[in-house]
Sequence to fold (692 residues):
Amino acid sequence: MAEQTTQIAHPLEPFLRKTTIPHIWCPGCGDGTILNSFVTALKELEVNLDKIAVISGIGCIGRIAGYTNTDSFHTTHGRPIPFAVGVKLANPELNVIVISGDGDLFAIGGNHFIHAARRNIGIKVICSNNFNYGMTGGQQGPTTPLASRTATTPFGNIEHPFNLVHLAAASGAVYVARWTTLHVRRMTESIKKAIQKEGFSFIEIVSPCPEIYGKASKIGTAMDFMNWFKKASVIQNFSDPAQAEITAEKIPVGEFVDVEKPTFEKLLREMTAQAQGKVTGGA
Amino acid sequence: MAIIEQKTIPLNGDEAVAYAVKQSDVDVVAAYPITPQTIIVERFSEYVANGEVDTEFVCVESEHSALAASLTASLTGARAFTATASAGLALMHEMVYVTAGCRAPVVMAVTNRALSAPINIHCDHSDVMAERDSGWIQLWAENAQEVYDSIIQAFRIAEHPDLMTPVMVNLDGFFLSHTLENVQVLPDNVVRKFVGIRQYPLVSDTQGKKVPFKLDPDFPLTMGPLDLPDYYFEHKRQQEEAMHIAPKIIKQVHDEYAKLSGRSYGNGFVDAYNVDDAEIVTVCLGSTAGTTKTVVDQLRSKGIKAGVLRVRTLRPLPVEDIMRALENKKAVAVLDRSNSVGGQGGPFFHEIRHVLYGAQSHPPIVDYVYGLGGRDMPPALIQNIYKDLEEIAKTGKVKNLVQFAGVRE
Fold:
């Protein structure tokens, strides 16, 4: 006997572009969790999707610009931040969110990150840190742990990695947090906080890459990554970001910075108004 | 000299590059991952890790840095190599000119790929066409075997003390980079001897003393300084003069290599397939020549006098060879895997048509822009182009100067 079935819409459907789903990320990749957390944050905040712009770079997570049902731009390698800066300055009413990877944001695009943070321009940057260039086959990148094996460091990496939360804090970000994809609810809360905050906000999400990095590094499967995150993560809210290096034994997570500082777009508007007032002889 | 006995191994185009670089006694490789070039650097990093090469290998943070590091390594006298594609080459653009202007004999493999936007990782020639005028010698390969052979030749050409000009070797992304072929490889010692030890031209230092042209504390020189309207023009003219002697060196290296390996590519500049007695001819670059040669064979079996001219050196442009090959034909079609938007045809069409202006007779010539973003160029499409050429040859009339082959209308 045929059973009666009811089609129920996915609760996050309004936030995703159905034509591009299912996504093409590997099984066990953390990017899907980040997408889920991000759109959950949008849903819980009840934001107007027309006021959200998602800007992504090159790398696996770059696909996210095509998956979110918002205005979006999939940029060239390393450049999501300058694209986002243009969007934010042209239309400061938009909530401009950059979602990209460690290779894109901190190697080829590293310069943009430190200067956007320094200026405190009101964009939010979410970084999926999977410790390597996953999409191009797992080369060593700016967050690859010392001694770790990758496609280009078969005998171990000899370069020191960035401590991203320290870099963001030192560069001037007003909100800095780090979670792993194990910390789904906390990650979502941080994203909600960043979206509501004025100024340059940065969230690092430590993310598993079982298919590429997991194999080369011998960390293993997605479950092995999750077990590592569970064992090594220590919540250290507002501890010194300089001491928050990720090691095999310890992944310091939490909120590291939450301060207020005038944003670049606000100061720019004020300066422009003042200059125009002078020209027209007004007040 | 007898042809050297060689082994045949399966290599894709990228692996053929890496294998040739491994054998060429390279001192410094600096690179950054980008599809479809990535395999080159991955394979090479394995050679480094296995201790098979004596090369400093550095994974830098962008393509701009990759070429900057290769350039400066080269200026110290080292043999330097890098590889890139598409957006990576575009990001290098500034350093592409600096490398040529510094006369640094860097060798670079360019795994040709379309440029953004929209993002596309597949083959076309837009990336390298933007670097046509930069002062690099450009070799173009038809298959993985030619990729291997050209990389080895490129070091000899670039580093020739009379030339000192960087060389890029172009291979079609995916069609060549990711396709496995049987490739004949020379023994390591033969390649090492062929590429030899890098020699340096002598230049005058500020005291008028002759010193080797490299950054060396024993013979201090400044490279790349400010060069205002007083001398900049002369230095740019010198690059052009080097390009005029380049054909002699390219030919010499190509012929010497042919004697060793038994492999040659036309006369080293153009590879003319059934062109001599042909009435209708297509002109192309890269891997499309393979398909086109097959179509030419089919047409010949039907008695149609078709030919294909593959250009191997886009820079220096073999003006005389192209002119002689095409001037008496009844109709010519250029196959362009890139477009010059708003420029009436692709950049390759402009090159070939410009050459024919100096010819004694001017065959009707048309352009087919094809294969952008990796769109396939199957034999049927090429057959249609020859059909068009037959019509043009018959009537002498060109209906459409520029067409897009294989695009949805």
User: Anything to note?
Assistant: The mean pLDDT of chain B is 97. The longest strand of chain B covers residues 107-112.
